Amino acid sequence: MQRIVTLFPVWVLAASLLALYYPPIFTWFSGPFITIGLGIIMLGMGITLEWNDFKRIGKIPGKVLIGVALQYTVMPIFGYTLGYVFQLPKEYAVGLCLVACCPGGTASNVICYIANLDVALSVSMTTVSTMLAVIMTPSLTSLLVGNRLYVDTLGLLWSTVQVIIIPISLGLALHRWIPGLTKRIIPVMPIIAVLMITLIVASIIGAGKEPITASGLTLFAAVFSLHTSGFLSGYLISRLFGGKDIVAKTISIEVGMQNSGLGVVLARQNFSSPLVAIPSAISSLFHSLIGSMLAGIWRKKIKT
């Protein structure tokens, strides 16, 4: 079961290639299915949390603050800048900014676990950045791209509440009031999350086959550059502030990996053009592959 989870970049890559070859395999998973899928992922995150986790965050506020601050500063800046550097069409540029303004994803927790890094710190940063996303993601997206494409800030805010706050709150409640049920559910939730992420990404890529292939390598290069910059800056800036190597690597993973599924849902629900969702789908593929590569390298170094 654990091997299925640790190989999730392989599933995402394979599904994406299949979606480009024959889109109908995955394009049925669209509309409300995508929203429900992300809600299930957030619910899974919620049932793994308890109120004591928030107390733990209070014991390491400095480390968490650095990671979350980088998440909502350097990534949006990179997203905005790279859209111009690569001269992306406005829909792709907006989509790149949107995913750059998203919080850390639960996939980062899996990668930190594989790499033998500070999983507690990773979960804490993901939790805080996810809660802040209700305000930060709509606000930053509106600030950065409001002049390029109309942004319904209140719509983004409500969508974020729907797919983050409500499922996570439900998960917390289930963990608190029905612990027996959650203990049985928790072991299978990572596999369900991998399945949902794979279906979401493949669906968007399949639906956008023509514009993706027409864009050539430019869009892929922009998304790859976004995540590479995130991983690198997360590590270097953390070290600059005196963070230990293991802490800097954990923050690097957290900053470099976004909740791309949230980006897809927000793009689909709040922008008329389907092209805005494509950078988020490609983002999920690239950050998973880069994160997995780093996890393999860092895990090997720790063992030796």
Q: Would you write up a description of this structure?
A:
The protein is mostly helical and 304 residues long. Helix content is 81%, strand content 0%. The chain has one domain (2-303): Up-down Bundle (Na+/H+ antiporter like fold). It contains 18 helices and no strands. The two termini are 26 Å apart.
Average predicted local confidence, pLDDT:
86
* Computed structural class: mainly alpha
Radius of gyration: 18 Å
Order of helices and strands: HHHHHHHHHHHHHHHHHH
Q: What's the number of domains?
A: 1
Low-pLDDT residue intervals, each spanning 5 or more residues: none
Shape: globular
* Fraction of residues in helix: over 70%
CATH architectural grouping: Up-down Bundle
Oligomer: single chain
**Roughly how many Å apart are the termini?**
26 Å
CATH class: Mainly Alpha
Count every helix, treating DSSP H or I runs of 4 or more residues as helices.
18
Biggest sheet overview: none
State the CATH topology.
Na+/H+ antiporter like fold
Question: In percent terms, what proportion of residues is strand?
Answer: under 5%
Count every beta strand, where a strand is a DSSP E run of 2 or more residues.
Answer: 0
